[in-house]
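Example 138.
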Amino acid sequence: MNFKYKADFKYFADLLSNGDIVKFKKQYKDYFDFRDPLIKRKEFNLLRDKIFKDLVKKYNGKCQLRLVKDCSVNATFVVDHFIPLSSNILNKKLRKLKTIKGKKVLTQSFGSNNPVNFVLACSKCNAYKKHRIMNIPN
Ligand SMILES: [Zn+2]
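Predicted structure in complex with zinc ion:
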């Protein structure tokens, strides 16, 4: 896992493996892909329909996020990346980068299109989650 910043590696290891670096490297390496997000986005768009069908089957049409009280109630479903393809959250949180002249804070490439990184999300949870990176309740 080629994280540009050590602090980012630590952030994800803390979030996903309670700081256990060995476990994190072993269990989460396939969740990350540091290539240009545009390339990953293109790949994802080509696969999206198939991934969606596979996830609906795999999870029996149930939302994997379960973040809101009325999760799945009258909701539609989408494919969500557990680790987002790109995010500027760590640039904001850890490096305190600020917006300059109305431009958004620079994003970094993180998530992969590996099947392990996909979750089936109801539209309500997806809207709640937005671009946050969070662990999913098991
Ligand atoms: Zn939900």
